[in-house]
TrEMBL record:
It catalyses: thiamine phosphate + ATP = thiamine diphosphate + ADP. GO terms for molecular function: ATP binding; magnesium ion binding; thiamine-phosphate kinase activity. Gene3D superfamilies: PurM-like C-terminal domain, PurM-like, N-terminal domain. This is Thiamine-monophosphate kinase. Belongs to the thiamine-monophosphate kinase family. The gene is thiL. Reaction mechanism of ThiL seems to utilize a direct, inline transfer of the gamma-phosphate of ATP to TMP rather than a phosphorylated enzyme intermediate. Mg(2+) 1 binds at residues 22-23, 100. The lineage of its organism: Bacteria, Bacillati, Actinomycetota, Actinomycetes, Streptosporangiales. It comes from Nonomuraea jabiensis. The keyword Nucleotide-binding applies.
Length: 289
């Protein structure tokens, strides 16, 4: 309703409630300027916050951005960053409502995203119940494969470009979040730290066990090609790789899911996450492990 230019923005809340999420990105920890352009980082920073809002079943409406940058940061890089924010917000019809900037030794980006539930109940992590199914929408393993290729110094080529781009600019299935809420999803989150680890949060919050069938996962061809290039099991990236920001949700078994949702497991009594009957543990990204 009122954007940048004053001491604060004014954001409408038609539902009477506001969904809020925040994230922090630090150069060298979450991105590297020699790997990603300013535009890439802007798209990525916006995407991971907008995805959190969508994972609650809400429609993202706006972002506010806190930015710390070195004094010698090229203006072109900063212009690209703001363009990236603008273009990623445009995907969901959101906008950058304002923010703050300061001098810093590294590029540090703090993003807060706001969203509207449209009269729906928020879809939390604690709603999974035995007898339900677990489904995934969006890509898994792509961003992890791209990171691994960059880390290994594999020369970029058209065959591997898709996974490298996925690391630089994830493409969350934003519309699937509110859509899942409409379908009756009882629990949901975005896959930011790895499917096994993130579903572990659902299992713990809901007091249930989640059993995954590895045969149910469709491994994308670019992920398979990258895995062959590096001599690794692509399923490892699919199950433990983060930053694709796919959505994982739990639905009643009687719900007829559209093809955009892939059923990959079930909810039973117990605790933890099992793959093929074996408890794997929360393998994935943990900042303090």
């Amino acid at each position: 309703m009122l954007g940048p230019g004053d001491d604060a923005a004014v954001v409408g809340a038609p539902d009477g409630r506001v969904v809020v999420s925040t994230d922090l990105l630090i150069e060298g920890r979450h991105f590297r300027r020699d790997w990603s352009s300013g535009y890439d980082v802007g798209r990525k920073a916006a995407a991971q916050n907008l995805a959190d809002v969508a994972a609650m079943g809400a429609v993202p409406t706006s972002l506010v951005v806190g930015l710390g940058v070195p004094a010698d940061l090229p203006l072109e890089w900063l212009d690209g960053l703001t363009d990236g924010f603008r273009d990623e917000c445009a995907v969901v019809g959101a906008s950058v409502a304002g923010g703050d900037i300061t001098r810093c030794d590294l590029v540090v980006i703090g993003v807060t995203a706001l969203g509207d539930l449209g009269g729906r109940a928020p879809v939390t992590r604690s709603g999974a119940r035995p007898g339900q199914v677990v489904a995934v929408a969006g890509r898994l393993g792509y961003a992890a494969a791209g990171w691994a290729l960059l880390e290994a110094g594999v020369p970029e080529n058209p065959v591997l470009e898709e996974v490298v781009v996925a690391h630089r600019r994830p493409g969350p299935p934003y519309a699937m979040g509110p859509g899942a809420a409409e379908l009756g999803a009882s629990a949901m989150l975005d896959v930011s730290d790895g499917l096994l680890q993130d579903l572990g949060h659902v299992a713990e919050a809901s007091g249930v066990r989640i059993e995954l069938d590895p045969r149910a996962f469709a491994v994308g061809e670019p992920v398979s090609v990258a895995a062959k290039e590096l001599g690794v099991d692509p399923l490892e990236w699919v199950l433990t790789g983060g930053e694709d920001h796919a959505l994982a949700a739990v639905f009643p078994s009687e719900v007829r899911l559209p093809p955009s949702w892939q059923v990959v497991g079930r909810v039973v009594e117990g605790e933890g996450v099992l793959v093929h009957g074996r408890e794997i543990g929360r393998r994935g990204w943990d900042h303090f492990r």
